[in-house]
Design a protein that fits this description.
Blueprint (H helix, E strand, L loop, with lengths): L2 H6 L3 E2 L5 E2 L28 E5 L5 E4 L1 H7 L3 H4 L4 H4 L10 H5 L10 E8 L5 E10 L6 E10 H37 L5 H33 L7 E2 L2 H14 L7 E5 L7 E2 L1 H18 L4 E8 L2 E7 L29 H11 L3 E6 L5 E8 L7
Parallel strand pairs: 9-11
Antiparallel strand pairs: 1-2, 3-4, 3-7, 5-6, 6-7, 8-10, 11-12, 12-14, 13-14
Helix pairs in contact: 6-7, 7-10, 8-9, 9-10
Length: about 375
């Protein structure tokens, strides 16, 4: 027998000793959708996992997809506490139900937007929740949770990356092809000013393609563990000043940047090129996504040096913070391949350092990375 009927209609004790059948999932909203030809829909017809708990937090509906994602049969889930059936953890490793508290939290909440959460075996799932209340602001009568395996989502993200990379390559290459064809065909008829403009554009587009290729190579090295760190003594404040000077030379107003060095810094053995890449990415991120002044603070910390890059923009939503360093992550407000911050994290960790993101004192985003001091065993 399929699990659909068993899962859709588990018996529920009303408290009077009489068992009754709870409403099907769609009846929670007062509707009764039908499939083709008027055939009633069942929870097993849905593409995502669906788990429904009653007013006491007991699981009363558990469809086939939920069983597939969670790896437990419906018979083991029905009647149990929702937290035991759905032992969800935040990306930070904390109990998500304790943080979200659907039964004891604010009564004006009606939903939880989809987010990535972890199962105890470290598998990632995408979870959304709907709070069904007896009346607005009333007690929770049903908790409806949908979930799906994040691996399919990751595959789509990779497909999106391929599409994005193809687009990023196609645009400059189309420009290069167009301008070089024009230069070859009409060289004698073009003015020096026109030739200069076309050649400068071709040069800039070639740089753009080169940067993209370097990013993809860095991702490959980070994922395969083949990233080499060639250490030498690096003056971090001077490295920051060079990066800022490069931004100013490219047209950014000098007054938009503030560099501050605090205290006496230890001697740092770092890969100069990779440190400049880290700083360039973080400063560019502050310029592109933030607003106002981009501040870079260099200061000693326990065992090394810390660098904080802060902007005065809208900041990063708390629920997004755990994902910003993931490969393929992209801000909704901006495009791009979603590789920059993933690469930054990989470069920092290759030095034995750590990087975090949070809210800056000014209200924007703050990226802070630390690097350990001390001469390496091998240079």
């Amino acid at each position: 027998m399929g699990s659909g009927r068993q899962v859709d209609h588990p018996a529920e004790d009303s408290g009077s000793g009489t068992a009754h059948v709870p409403a099907a999932l769609w009846e929670v909203d007062g509707g009764s959708p039908a499939g083709p030809g008027g055939t009633p829909l069942h929870a097993d017809d849905l593409p995502d996992g669906v788990v429904v708990a009653d007013s006491r937090g007991r699981v009363v509906l558990f469809n086939t997809q939920a069983a597939h994602v969670l790896g437990i049969p419906a018979e083991s889930a029905l009647g149990r506490d929702y937290r035991a059936v759905l032992p969800l953890l935040g990306i930070d490793g904390n109990d998500w139900w304790q943080a979200s508290d659907p039964y004891g939290g604010a009564r004006d909440r009606v939903r939880q937007a989809e987010r990535a959460l972890l199962l105890p075996d470290d598998r990632e799932v995408l979870v959304a929740a709907r709070y069904v209340r007896a009346r607005p602001g009333g007690e929770l009568v049903r908790l409806v949770v949908t979930l799906r395996d994040a691996s399919a989502h990751a595959e789509r993200s990779r497909a999106d990356l391929v599409s994005e990379v193809a687009h990023e390559l196609r645009s400059p290459l189309t420009s290069v092809k167009g301008f070089t064809s024009t230069l070859l065909a009409k060289w004698e008829r073009l003015t020096d000013k026109q030739k200069l403009f076309m050649l400068e554009t071709v040069n800039a587009d070639a740089d753009r393609v080169t940067r993209l290729i370097h990013d993809l190579l860095d991702v490959s090295r980070i994922e395969s563990g083949r990233l080499e760190v060639r250490r030498q003594v690096v003056d971090l404040p001077e490295a920051v000043r060079r990066v800022v000077a490069g931004r100013v030379a490219s047209g950014e107003p000098e007054e938009r940047f503030r560099v501050e060095t605090r205290g006496e810094l230890p001697r740092m053995w770092l890969d100069a090129d990779k440190i400049e890449q880290i700083l360039s990415n973080l400063v560019e991120n502050g310029v592109r996504h933030g607003a106002g002044t981009v501040s870079v603070v260099i200061e000693p910390c326990e065992g090394g040096t810390a660098v904080s890059v802060r902007d005065e923009g809208q900041g990063i939503a708390p629920e997004t913070i755990p994902r910003v360093f993931r490969q393929f992550w992209r801000s909704k407000r901006r495009g791009g391949t979603g590789l920059g911050l993933f690469i930054v994290k990989g470069l920092v960790e290759a030095h034995g350092g750590t990087i975090t993101v949070g809210r800056a004192p000014s209200g924007g985003a703050e990226f802070r990375f630390t690097m350990p001091a001390g001469a390496p065993e091998f240079v």
